[in-house]
Amino acid sequence: MQESSQIDLRSFIKNEITKNFKKIRGKHASISEIVDNTSKTLQVEKLYDLREKEKNCFLFIVKNYSKTPKLRYFLAISLANNSSDFLVQIAKDWAVKNDLKLIQYSIFSRNLRIQLLLLKEIKQYDDYTNFLEKLTIIRGKFRTKLERIKNLVENE
User: Which pLDDT belongs to residue 100?
Assistant: First the structure.
């Protein structure tokens, strides 16, 4: 069952994403994740810009550190264009509660801005729209909280 769902996901990505969205060119930095208290590197194979249809969204296709599955897919949404430790502290609780990864990553390598991204791994093609909605809702809550903090500082 796991193998057939991977094939469905792979064909969905190939037919729906790679044909309809623009690939971001250039070399991309690896993403690391901690597995059993050791850091594992996930090399970014391809990165797609979904912002044409889905605001602030990207799709990462990464090479897995183990043999199966060969590729892993991560849906990402940009929480902030300029990341900082303060913004990470604000977003950390939502990431932990919703089983998401929070990374600081430079999507456009020529641009020196480090964005704050929220990632969710897609394991089945059915998860794509659900995760997209979930990430969008969390981004909205994050932006609302930032606005409240800004208003508090301005009114002081």
Answer: 92
Instruction: Report how far residue 102's alpha carbon sits from residue 93's, in angstroms, rounded to the nearest whole number.
Output: 10
Question: What CA–CA distance (Å, rounded) separates 106 from 129?
Answer: 25
Hey, what domains does the chain have and what are their CATH numbers? 2-155 (3.30.1460)
Q: Average pLDDT, whole number, for the chain?
A: 87
Cα radius of gyration (the chain): 16
Return the pLDDT at 47. 93
Task: Give the C-alpha separation, 12 to 125, whole Å.
Answer: 6
Q: Which two tokens stand for residue 120?
A: 């969710």
The answer, yes or no, to whether residue 141 has pLDDT greater than 80, is yes
Q: What is the pLDDT of residue 108?
A: 81
**Single pTM value for the model:** 0.87
The candidate with the shortest Cα–Cα distance to 77, out of 133, 34, 24, 25, is 133
DSSP per-residue string spanning 83-121: --HHHHHHHHHHHHHTT-EEEEE-SSTTS-PPEEEEEEE
Predicted local confidence at residue 8, as pLDDT: 82
- The 10 Å Cβ neighbour count of residue 126 is 13
